[in-house]
Amino acid sequence: MFVCRSCVRKTLSSAAGETRLLGQPLRSSLAPASSHRSFATAPPAAKSESNDVESALAFAAQPAETVDLEAKRAKRLEFAVNKDLQYLKNNFKIAEHVLKKLGSGNFEEALLLTRKASRNQSVVVSWNHLIDFLMKQQRLSAAIKLYNEMKKRAQVPDAKTFTIIFRGCAASQHPKMAVAEAIKIYNSMLVGTVKPNTIHLNAVLETCGRAGDLDSLFTILKTMNEGLRAPNNQTFTIILNALRNRPDLQAGLDEETTARNHAQNIEKARLIWADAVNRWQKGRIVIDESLVCAMGRMLASGHDAQARDILPLLEQTMKVPRFDLTEGATVAGESQEEPQPTQVAKPVQYAKPGPNTLSLVLVCLKRIKKTSLATRYWQYFQTALGVSPDKDNYIKYLQVLQMARGSTAAANAIVAMPKEFLTPFSYRVAFSTCIHDSLNQHAFSNACKIFEVMARKSRYPDALSMRLFLQCARSNFRHLTEKYADDENAASQAIGKQIVTAIDLLWPSFRILMSSFSFSDRPTKSPEDLFDLSRGELQEAIATARRMIAAMDKVVQEKMADEEVCRVLQSRRVVLNKLVERHVAKEYAMDERTGKKLPASEQAGLDADLDRALRKASVY
User: Fold this and answer.
1) Same domain, 358 and 454
2) 3-state class of 179 per DSSP?
3) Is-above-0.70 flag for pTM?
């Protein structure tokens, strides 16, 4: 143990510079008198002797126990690093050991090891690992400081170093700072030993694009050449995505200004796409799905006439057939600037379609009101192209079918959807499609097929989906009235049978739904807490119960079923009615206990619900 703190300072002064953390120096380390910089968010000013004195005074003011612990820690770290360096004979082994230390989260030891190894040999790979670690931790400023320290220690950055820095800037959560640092380092490369290549160019363009800085993006784009920085498919993809996500297009401007900005933006995109197609025809770049979809989504952001060019675009680059055209026909507003595959001068490699392309096709069909073609494209992509639809594809397909009122295709899609893709939203869209497909005599049958999937694959059924299913049974009866146009009683019995079928399917699922509120796995302290926590979901379930009561009343009061069926419905109605009554009573009790007062209109609604529930309970 040291006798005085002055001795501690002198003893640790040699190790202080080595054990200093990036932006977090050890308490026992003093600022060295040399030109070594400490790391901070902003560039520090030149250190003066007064700062050293203040640091020394602050260090001397620490308790003796703290000084002893940190001194021992620094010595242990120093000893461990020196021991490792005895066995790490080459830079490959050192880089491997640094990566292992970083993998275990021991950044301090990895940094000290790299600094010590830098005295005698080149360990650029180890520095790259350190910078990459900080970039992944979203410590942009600290990573740039470490890059500067690397150069001061005579460690010459290589191409991989700059790739790590630029990709880290592109993924940074501080886009403005990232753009400034990336451009500064990129410009230094233009006059340095290591020249930027296409990978560096794309990473810097990605940084500018994510920050919405199009001026800087096009400035960097001017450094493109036909040699080391020749553009590739990723370059054009980044530019098109940056144009589509321009911040000024997202602003709340008037419709005329927004339309004009979109038109100008798409014209720029067309020029960039023409350059890409020209290079593709000459075999200088490969067009892939990402690039095609980037251009397609740019067209989809414009008006309908521009969106029509999406299908010709896919035919040109992917040889996807045009189901919207008959042989020899043309579409109004279709662009003729881009050549068809038969016009390509040299053999080229076409892009391979995938889920992204299928999603783009569905968006296009919805925009140009060609929803009837959705099923043809859906089947073609799966059978002819071997594309496996993802979750987003299924959702977009269901939304297009909703517009097309294709309940049969919607039911088939729900049946084919993997269990992990099925959500309450997908069921709701499918049931809504069945409701609006009123001209289809099989709409209710399709709804029953969808409901069976929900009952089988969902842990708890969705309350709103259940109400939509019941609505489908009550509203889709046009085919029955037409079938029994001459017999009103027969038509009424057929409609009643349809409603009773829906209630029979709903009954076990509704009981399962209500049991979820009694045996909940949510951590609560009391039943009141559980009721308050699930209050919104319970209100949805009670709303479903009320719709079921209304449907039962319609069947019973209008005698749309035989007496035996009506007696079953009456007994079920009593159960539902008591359930509603208990819920309304709990709502009143909860509001009185918590002191919450509802608006007069809502309070009157609750009073009416309670009176109605009590009155109907005494009827049957």
Assistant:
1) no
2) helix
3) yes
